[in-house]
């Protein structure tokens, strides 16, 4: 039993890191653009396929193709912003949430259908030579690929925090997220800030997808599940700090993992959603915290 | 320096500004005065490109401002401090000032400008690393002005600089505004606080119900019976 619990704790932490990573991009787009992009999980799915095909066709190791996937999805994010979300950000802050929900839900359907058409509905996983390797620490096995995922998630959060707190562009991001009108009056090109923030958000989703395609599996329909986890994480953590988002992700992963040990696997999702409702009931302002307090 | 002609602004079907014209000459303080709801702030926001202009023109140093994105106006030296002060509470005092020099033109002289700002407002220097959210109302207005100066303005626009401040702080702020003018920056301010504004302004306009009711120098307006009766408790 102890071994089972320890193993669940480790798996919970590892999957939680992924929840956190997915939530980082969602929080960035929501904090800065006030756009709720429920297609974030579909961007993850696309990133996963990009890594999968790069591996299958060109034999590119997913860790090698990761920077390429990042850049490609940054570009795709730019296109999505210019074609769709640009029009959402022209409306008032409160209208943006509703409009972005509608638009991004449409995007979910389109991307899923296209993925089924072109990639088939099969579940895929990248199997490299090291895919099955694991570190054995006492009674616990730590799969290296999933561990690498956690390391990437933490690094992404720290990099984002550095960007926000130490760079000129980061200050502009924080200013825009606090009040875009005043940011514009300060000389910040708000549209460009929106464009770049959205593109970074998309690129982060793709990195997560790349890791999911190695440590877990991908299929055209995985997106909404990941988006939902990310939403729960953002509600848990607020938009206050990037590090906090990773911590909240790990917390969610742990809760789910332990719930499935004690209550049975079928309660995994239920526990996460109950947690979501409890947080919304008792800390409803978590969602509207500052992008960087 | 700034010339506005026949400006009309509407929020959807509701028109609030009906053909407003005024000029801000170089090296002077011009005030737009008038009661709440006269359309003062609306006029400023429209000039800055934050509200759509229905008709009329606005030009700065001879170039039209209509359709120009706000951040490019800042780059050209037209800087506005909004009514809610313009500093960001989620940033520290120093980060706010650094952000003030965001445009490429202002960035080159960032270090010198910051020294000047700290000389003008020693209290900001003492609170460098504090979050702007912890400042008092007066300090926050000083930070807003400091941040605007970081952008190296040629024309500084202030929306209700005295709003919510104690009289003694208001005096200080107006001293600073006059000092800014003497350093060669033109100032356009909108005020409800008439006496104070008329004392400092070289020229003033009175806006009522979205159009200019009257205009003149401070002493002229103070002598105007209608203005005296309507606005001044003299």
Strand order of the largest sheet of chain B: 6-7-8-3-9-10
Summed over residues and divided by their number, the pLDDT of chain B gives a mean of 93
Largest interface comes to: A-B, 22 and 26 residues
Number of helical regions of chain B = 11
Oligomer: heterodimer
Helix content of chain A: over 70%
Question: Which descriptor suits the 3D outline of chain B?
Answer: globular
- Parts with pLDDT < 50 across at least 5 consecutive residues of chain B: none
The number of helical segments of chain A is 11
Main sheet makeup of chain A: 2 strands, antiparallel
User: From N to C, what is the helix and strand string of chain A?
Assistant: HHHHEEHHHHHHH
Strand order of the largest sheet of chain A: 1-2
Structural class of chain B: alpha/beta
| C-alpha termini separation of chain B | 33 Å
Any idea what the radius of gyration of chain B is? 17 Å
Number of strands of chain A: 2
Uncertain stretches of 5 or more adjacent residues of chain A: 287-293
Q: How far apart are the first and last residues' alpha carbons of chain A, in Å?
A: 42 Å
Anisotropy-based shape of chain A: globular
What does the model show?
The complex is a heterodimer of chains A (293) and B (234). Chain A has helices at 2-33, 40-58, 62-88, 93-119, 144-166, 168-178, 180-185, 190-215, 223-237, 242-262, 268-282, and strands at residues 134-137, 140-143. Chain A has 293 residues and is mostly helical. In chain A, helix 2 (40-58) packs antiparallel against helix 3 (62-88) and helix 9 packs parallel to helix 11 (268-282). The model of chain A is unreliable at 287-293 (pLDDT under 50). The chains are: A mainly alpha (293), B alpha/beta (234). The interface between A and B is medium-sized, with 22 and 26 residues.
